[in-house]
Amino acid sequence: MIGVIFGVIVPYIAVAIFIAGVVYRILSWASSPVPLKIPTTGGQQKSFPFIKRTVYDRFDSPYTWWETAGRMLLEIFLFRSLLKNTRYYLDRVSQKDARWLWLFGILFHYSLLLVLIRHSRFFLEPVPSFVELLSEIEAFKGVFIPSVYMSGLAIVAALFLLWFRRIFLSRERTLSLPSDHFVLILLLAITISGNLMRYFFKADLFAVKELLMSLMALNITHAVEVANTIEPVFYVHFALASFLLAYFPFSKLMHAGGVFFSPTRNMPNDNRARRHVNPWDPADVPILAKGITVAGETYKSKKLDWETYYEMYRGQLEEIEEADYKIAPEEL
Amino acid sequence: MEDVAEKIEIKQKFPGWREMLKPVKKFEEGRLSYLSLPKQVNSDFFKMPFGDVERDFENLKLPENWKEIFLEALKDTLEKNRAFKLFMDICVRCGACADKCHYYIGTGDPKNMPVGRAELIRSVYRRYFTPAGKFLGEWAGARELTEDVLKELYYYAYQCSLCRRCSLFCPYGIDTAEIVWWLRRILSRVGVNQRFMTISIEASSRTGNHLGLLPGGMYGAIQQGLEELKDYTGLDLHTYINKRGADVLFVAPSADFFATPHWYVMLGYLLLFNELEQKYGLTITWSTYASEGGNFGSFHSYEAAQLLNSKIYKEAERLGVSFIIGGECGHMWRDKHQFINTMNLPPKHEEWKRFWENPDLGELAEGLRGVRFDSYASGEHGWIHILEFVAALLEHRKITVDKSRNDKWIATYHDPCNLARGMGLIEEPRYVLRNVMNNFYDMPEHTIKDKTYCCGGGGGMLAEELMDLRMRGAMPRMMAVRHVYRKYGVNILLTPCAIDKAQFPHALEYWKIPIEVGGPMEMVGNALVMTAFGEKPEDRKFDLRGEPLKEEGE
């Protein structure tokens, strides 16, 4: 029974929620327009040829499409903004580098990447050779028996480190919500159960692969058959992972997709070369002069165009006209 | 500085997450902005919803269905602005931004951490717009919108100077300035506005500038500048105003017409314009209608920003100029670099189009040939910063300068937030300063350029009633200034930003750093040799402050 529920029904539901949720969230972000071109410029703008820009300036204050893409890639693969992190001390002028968050973050995310790549062996037949190779390298094959996967241990360590930040650092403790702890605990549960299964309470991995392959092939009858043969310990890991998938689209974990949409990062700093058009503002007449409607009532500001202005201050403007639009020191 | 205690204590507090969700009830003196009066937000030229009621903070007198209106405005914002929506969703509360905010460093108030500030509205967003918030409430970090929450939103939305320093360090580029800016817009929909900025917005929407200067007043101010210059240099100078057929329109923040030390920068502009006209025939005009470069609307809302910056392209078109030069101002350049040509249609008149087909100054004045703008600007925008302009003139040897005239100054340069993080104007001012003076030292690397600290008075925070907040917010910048003051004997802090120039004299006095404040154009004006008027480098006896260039006995 456990096998059918956690091996077949739950994963299907989880994957469905995951896909639908992620697609929904991405579409919902994409459906909101970008009214202004607002890159955060972290370096020298493109300027006259004699104003030199370093390679950092080109990525931190990108002007072309390529530079912007470079900025995004550096952000995604190297967490460049976190790498700039400093810590302010009240009692001194200098700031010390504080890149622990960057280190823990990188450790976690790259371990996760390796772990996911290793797990692809359960979904792919035949297993791609680079997956085999990568697994062998990170396990220092032959050194330990059975082989110990570094990423599996590193990810647990990184998660603990990230969690300790939230527990022991006062600022981080103050701003952590229950959901922030929850995600870390959930990920810890998944990774620890995975490791335990890997080294202590072995499950039949051939059966697991058969289950996943038949789930993917939508061969439900066979999936049910296989599911019932797998040890319950596997389902602890599997159910938690399914839950994570279903939880993903509704949580802050969506930062994985969101980072690509961030207008302060993915727009070039070329405002003065190319005009950005705001889809909801034709920009012909100021919106306030057209009037804004709140709770059924319209508030319209009078537009100060030149004619209105001239009428209002005619006397003074005529004096300027008489001076032939020229200002000179008064003759004494 | 009588409003701020001699000694301030930075009390760091670290409440639990539940406490963070509860609205604060105690509003510190010197950190709460006054609310707008009807004459500011119910004026003919600037009419805001429910602006006709006089409110005080004890009794907000909100419209009956304010909650509905607020949530409707929040929904509207989510639908209109991807950045806002995204920033509501993807924050992971990693804390990278926490100690990047000068107001947090200065106050220790946890809700002044950028993430804390954003969580104030995020928690309301979660309650009404996400399933988790709806069902799990507090446990999902969500909270009800109540009048206390609204007060708290106002209190903290107006303790942010929109400097974007947090955005630089955020791994997702979450920009608190964007969140706060649109939050202020939402607040304005239920009739809650900040007095300080709406005074200027209203004045600018009625007269063309923040100070409310009428055409005659502006004329008189510039005339006085020319008279002072005659005293200091002995030269008969002139300039143009509202002149049709001029080559260039010049737009400066209106503070330059009156305030000190802005005034010295104004004199610098005038010297430069005269030299260019006399030597090359390039005519530059001021305008009484487009008399404000700054834009306090850009602290309030998209619509208010647009209302104020809509005049300038229109004026460029009316006067038939070829391009626009903008003066020394910080937020002006966030507005002029990133906003103005989206909020308005760029000019289409003949002279403009002709110039931008081949944007070489030689097309306007033969002697200036070689100074080109097409490496980064186009007719779709048409603005050049005065310091970019001067940098180009220096590079192409179009003006003559005598560095030694600035020898009494040992300068450091403060990057205005918006120039650094909203535009990327970082090296041009340094290029200019290195060329017009001999003694120039930068502050420590983590406090300048893109990582620059706010002066503590930007984004509408220059109000008198916020003095405590301003002095605290200026602290990180002041510590960096003190460092170079002690190390190099710096005696002037240069900044091309009108708000900085108003804030720093107070802040330097409060933090007991006995140095002057000025703008780069003042140094340019000092060093500029008016060759077209027959001036020799050694002829100038006074600087633009009217003081002898060389100390007695040297």
TrEMBL record, chain B:
What is the superkingdom listed in this entry's lineage?
Archaea
- Annotated keywords: 4Fe-4S, Electron transport, Iron, Iron-sulfur, Metal-binding, Transport
Which InterPro entries does the entry mention? 4Fe4S_Fe-S-bd, 4Fe4S_Fe_S_CS, Cys_rich_dom, Helical_ferredxn
Classification via Pfam families? CCG, Fer4_8
Q: Which GO terms describe its molecular function?
A: 4 iron, 4 sulfur cluster binding; metal ion binding; oxidoreductase activity
State whether keyword Transport applies: yes
Q: Which PROSITE patterns match?
A: 4FE4S_FER_1, 4FE4S_FER_2
Domain named 4Fe-4S ferredoxin-type is located at 82-111
Question: Does Transferase show up as a keyword for this record?
Answer: no
**NCBIfam families this protein is in?**
DsrK (NF045796)
Record-given protein name: (Fe-S)-binding protein
User: Which species does the entry assign this protein to?
Assistant: Archaeoglobus fulgidus
